[in-house]
Write a structure and sequence with these properties.
The complex is a heterodimer. Chain A is about 25% helix and about 35% strand. A six-stranded mixed sheet of chain A has the order 6-7-8-3-9-10, with helices on both faces. In chain A, helix 4 packs across helix 5. Chain B is built from 14 helices and no strands. Classes of the chains: A alpha+beta, B mainly alpha. Chain A: Keywords: ATP-binding, Cell membrane, Membrane, Nucleotide-binding, Sulfate transport, Translocase, Transport. Chain A: Pfam families: ABC_tran, CysA_C_terminal, TOBE_3. Chain A: It comes from Tahibacter aquaticus.
Chain lengths: ~375, ~290
Amino acid sequence: MTLAINRLSRRFADFRALDDVSLSIAPGEFIALLGPSGSGKTTLLRILAGLDFPDAGALDQDGRDLLRVSARDRGVGLVFQHYALFRHMTVFENVAFGLRVRKRARRPSKAEIADRVDKLLKRVQLDGMAQRYPSQLSGGQRQRVALARALAIEPELLLLDEPFGALDAQVRVALRRWLRHLHEEMGLTTVFVTHDQEEALELADRVVVMNRGRIEQVGTPDEIYQQPATPFVFEFIGKSNKVPVRIHGGRLQAGDQRFEADALEGLADGSAVAYVRPEHLALSTTPLENGWKATLRHVYLSGSVAHLELEVPGLGQTLEAELGGEEAQRRSLQSGMHVTVQPRHLTVFPLDGKSGEPDLARRRVVHPRYGQAALARWR
Amino acid sequence: MEAALPLQRSRFTARRLVHALLILAALAFLAVFLLLPLAAVFVEALRKGLGTYVAAVVHPEAIAAIKLTLLVAAIAVPLNTVFGVAAAWAMTRFDFRGKAVLGAIIDLPFSVSPVVSGLIYVLLFGAQGWFGPWLQEHDIKLIFAVPGLVLATIFVTLPFVARELIPLMQSQGSDEEEAARVLGASGWQIFFRVTLPNIRWALLYGVLLCNARAMGEFGAVSVVSGHIRGLTNTLPLHVEILYNDYNYAGAFAVASLLAFLALVTLGLKTFLEWRYGTELAARAGRGH
């Protein structure tokens, strides 16, 4: 089942929920739609389910125009954020619903329905709960009933709206790994909406990062984290330091420091903004010529990781660095120490001369060259 | 400590005294304005003995009034039930222009005096009314006939079902209905298997109130009825006629039937609230 989403747009009054969104989903993929609220991810999911329709664009499933197919006939499995279980029906009746409402010719016999519901309840580990009502179940159990109900109609495409949003942290982690196994066992194609980056990065084959109705980046979790394509992705996913810089004669001027690097060849002189992740800042306690001079303001040890707050007078701002907790202790890093900070690599977006906005087309990843001597010293 | 105790105790007794007085005042108020009249209805009805009571109730004109009241309610209540469900559905499941206007129209009968609503029908359909000549030409009699009674009753009882359902359906949202649609259910299947079961107790409650009002309505019905004995007299109108004839025992006897209806409605209403309180709770914070 290949799903082709082609240039979808959707407006609600003067709010652009979706703005020219295109995406292709391959059979068997596990896709996360990740973004803040209002980014359009739920609107996209509802359009896939047939509960909403775009103002423009096309939606195609294996050559079938899905926009001409009503929600009723799409045969898509959908799990709602708050599950939307039928409150007046038992667990059994909830799961059987999709089979019971079929036209007589396609409706399985009573015994067959009972058999299939039993199997599904076993599959979601709810056997023995068949005669309970939704109000008698825990959050995790309700979510699994909603899943079994969606799976009863044997969908190829499973859609989940914030599937773990309403659950306790512990249940959440267990349930999402279980869901990933279920996806693989049943050969489903799954799309889920989330605002939780950890969830998206851990579960999905590919993550679609959305913002203001547009797709910012599509990629594997590793690509999304390691090579963010836009300033938004840098700021929304993981942590990052944002540093205003200037490009001057193929060099990067950041505060009182100049970095030499190959990647800058061909970029015109001008202002730019650079992003660097906290774990990509290297520290040296012996003063080095290359790198920002900084004062260590705070060391926060949180389990295996140490978060460092660095005051950099040359930049006029505070940077956040991260390193292993053990390493921080071994090097006895303490607040008040003077250190030299060297970014291992930065992602640079030159600012557009007219609008002053970051120019995504001229994005460069910059690996500054430091002197051999300096490199040798800080590991 | 020892000095403080008597003071606290006296404060405590004072507060209990205030409580008791307030409760007593409330009970006295209820007794004078509600229980006493209710009791008076039954006492007056039976004042001249059980024989007179039964005679008044089984009098042909009384029987005709009972039948007519039942007939009017049997037409008005189902129609308003269907309308109420449809209006609540439209108001809570769709966004459209003029939604606020529809909401105001549904409430209109609550804010208009019933006498006025009766008069409107006379002005529209009466002999001298807008459509009067046309109706006479086609030999259709609405005013001073049963259809007029039905129309006036429908108007007066229109809001009850819709007003009962709208807050509940609003709070329930449409997630379950959308879930049913994605699972392959048709519109009717969604309505009968998902929507209706979710609103059934509020619906029953609304129908109950609608029915009580339909059977007890006086003002609007009085204007369009014409008071033709045995033909266009409903129970409340029959009570008035008997009373004006100085037949007090008869008037109270027939009135006791209406009082009895009120008691049954109250009993059912209390039962529904007690049994399905949480499902009806969505109506809280509203009154009419």
